[in-house]
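User: Can you recover a sequence for this backbone? Please restate the input before giving your answer.

Assistant: Of course. Working from this structure:
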């Protein structure tokens, strides 16, 4: 069994999970957070080196104010409770996204935990927060212009300006909840990812479900433009 080095997940379906149970949407977010904990631990056990989770997209600010503030409070609580425990488990935590719209309090927590865990090396956990793939590309372009406006850009140089740098690109993308779209998550970095779409809602995505996704990944032939025959040689 090949264990992918980097797995990226669009954790979707919390609202529908709650609705099915006649609960408020936010109850689904609370359940979703429990799965985050389980999946992070399982990735670490499996020897996955990088895990990128889409926690809150730039477009998610469009949600009702109450839901946004519930999500921000939940995040803040997770950082102060669970993320410090992850530090003890040698997990390195980084946040990627446009940090300008986050509250001072959360920004402070984000910086502290990033700094605290910066030398850890078991699992690299990236939380995409106020992130979008189009934003990532545009911020890269702007930083390139500011740094070296006349230098010709190569794909290699460009990728060094993306927020995910220096992580390798994910081999496996998982999206839960039955939607088969990327919803402005990482774009450039998905160039050759295997994309696994499951109808399971995020609060139901347990460690067995992750094992199934990895099994599926193992059944794929990654050709990178070549033919099957070339690969078999
Ligand atoms: C994903 O679940 C969590 C976030 C986007 C923060 P949703 O809240 O999108 O759940 P659905 O898609 O409405 O079921
Ligand atoms: C994508 O889910 C964002 C996160 C999982 C954080 P959405 O629920 O926001 O995506 P759409 O709106 O259905 O495309
Ligand atoms: Mg959704």
């Amino acid at each position: 069994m090949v264990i992918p080095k980097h797995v990226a997940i669009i954790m979707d379906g919390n609202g529908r999970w709650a609705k099915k149970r006649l609960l408020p949407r936010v109850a689904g977010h609370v359940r979703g957070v429990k799965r985050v904990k389980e999946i992070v631990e399982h990735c670490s056990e499996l020897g996955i080196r990088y895990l990128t989770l889409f926690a809150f997209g730039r477009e998610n600010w469009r949600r009702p104010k109450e839901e946004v503030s519930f999500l921000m409070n939940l995040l803040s609580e997770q950082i102060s409770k669970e993320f410090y425990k992850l530090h003890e488990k040698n997990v390195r935590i980084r946040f990627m996204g446009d940090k300008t719209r986050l509250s001072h309090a959360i920004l402070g927590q984000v910086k502290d935990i990033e700094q605290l865990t910066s030398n850890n090396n078991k699992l690299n956990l990236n939380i995409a927060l106020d992130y979008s793939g189009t934003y990532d590309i545009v911020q890269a372009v702007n930083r390139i212009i500011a740094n070296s406006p006349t230098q010709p850009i190569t794909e290699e140089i460009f990728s060094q300006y993306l927020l995910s740098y220096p992580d390798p690109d994910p081999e496996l993308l998982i999206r839960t909840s039955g939607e088969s779209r990327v919803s402005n998550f990482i774009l450039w970095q998905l160039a050759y990812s295997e994309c696994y779409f499951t109808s399971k809602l995020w609060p139901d995505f347990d460690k067995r479900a992750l094992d199934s996704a990895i099994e599926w990944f193992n059944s794929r032939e990654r050709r990178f433009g070549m033919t099957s025959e070339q690969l078999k040689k």
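That completes the design. Helices lie at 14-20, 25-46, 65-88, 104-116, 133-147, 155-159, 207-218, 228-232.
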